[in-house]
Amino acid sequence: MLTIIGTESRLFLSLKTIATLSLLFFLTACSIPTREFSAYNNAFAETQKIGEQIVIDYSVAKKELAVLKRGKDEQAVRKSSFKSNQLLLSKVPIDDVAIRLAAWEVVGSYNKVLSNLIAGKPAQAESESKNILSSLLRLSAKALSTTASKLHPAAAALKAILAEVEKGLERRRIIKSMERISPIISNGLIANMKKDSELFYKVRYGLNNHRYQQLRFDIGRHIKAFVKLANIMSVEARIDIVHPMLKTLNARMEKIAKSSTGRGFKPIKLRPKAGGSNGPIIISQLNTLKMQILILLDQAAQQNQALESYRETLTAYVRLLNQLDLHLKALQQAATDGRSEQIELSNDFNTALIQMRQAHLYYQNSQ
Fold first, then answer.
1. Which stretches in the chain have pLDDT values below 50?
2. Do 216 and 185 belong together in one domain?
3. CB-based burial label for 232 (10 Å; 0-12, 13-18, 19+)
4. Residue 311 located in a structural domain
5. 3-state class of 277 per DSSP?
């Protein structure tokens, strides 16, 4: 019913094509698969909650990365006042994040329409249909000028549902509504949300890598200062004091994964020829540098872990979306010939949902 933008507007599917393919469904069905619809509806509601969190995380990462790319020299403007009346004169364009969130909202509202119709509550269904149309209208025509034609068929379908409600909807017509809209949800929303995960990872990787490379620079600067001091120490001081420090630092650097965000860290080495100093001030400075390097190495390891946990989160998210799509297809199949795999699908979905929640919590704690 509503397609969304992935990396560019090219990710929008042709609703006319989808509508044509959808004619293969439900042409002879006349019974409503209430159990399958309830299972799908519950699955969609749970996936929507998580999907919106994933989209919001992408939005935050996208904005933060944009700020970092502009550079530290560009200072944010500090405005001393806030005029609420001026907000009425300003127009905020709809961006790709808002479109994704609107897509979840609109499809969720459509599901509520069917829930009310199936429950025999046409008045609530009529009200919900109007809410859906309002959601579509909130998408600025100017901001969506290149994709407005692709949204119109969805609005027309919703108007058709409303018209049927006003005439007194028959159970057979509910099936016809599923016939038109379900393939669009599957191929428009769910498929593109899966594809979106690639963009989400790319943005989060860029932000994570920016932080990681800054840590690499800071670690290298501290190592350079450490080596400069260690090289002037005497042979005895190196054996008793410096070498134990080097062993600790090198062992810690070996634990930083090399594949997560670029190169690892080379072992610290000193010049073969030792100096002659054993001063307590230098020893204190070496200890301070060692501790600072260890702290920075911990932060680098955390960046690697955060990226890996985000990858696991997106993996679980794609699997959850796939389970949602299976629920939708089971609903279509049940409406067509009465066959049902609801129990098995629900168990698989619940497992995917638990794994998704677990992965997302782990990712949040790794930040």
1. 1-30, 140-149, 261
2. no
3. middle
4. no
5. strand
Q: How far is CA 48 from the centre of its chain?
A: 12
The backbone torsions φ and ψ at residue 291, rounded to the nearest 5 degrees and listed phi first, read -65, -40
Amino acid at position 227, single letter? V
Q: Give the C-alpha separation, 276 to 282, whole Å.
A: 12
Quick one: which of 189, 198, 163 has its CA closest to 177?
163
Contact partners, residue 361, CB within 8 Å, separation at least 6: none
Q: Is the dihedral of CA 22, 23, 29, 30 positive or negative?
A: positive
Phi-psi region of 262 (alpha: psi -120 to 50; beta: other; left: phi over 0): left
In which domain, by residue range, is 159 found?
9-70+94-195+326-366
Residues contacting 180, CB < 8 A, separation 6+: 19, 22, 157, 160
Report the domain count for the chain. 2
In tens, the pLDDT along 55-108 reads: 999 999 999 888 887 765 555 667 788 877 777 776 666 677 877 887 788 788
Mark whether 239 and 300 lie in a shared domain: yes
Say what the alpha-carbon torsion angle 23, 25, 27, 29 is, to the nearest 10 degrees: -160
Q: How far apart are CA 148 and CA 123, in angstroms?
A: 29
pTM to 2 decimal places: 0.76
314: nearest Cα among 195, 234, 236, 197: 197
What spatial distance separates the first Cα and last Cα of the chain, rounded to whole Å? 36
Q: Are residues 48 and 174 in the same domain?
A: yes
Question: How many Å apart are CA 186 and CA 198, to the nearest integer?
Answer: 18
How is residue 33 written in tokens?
């698969």
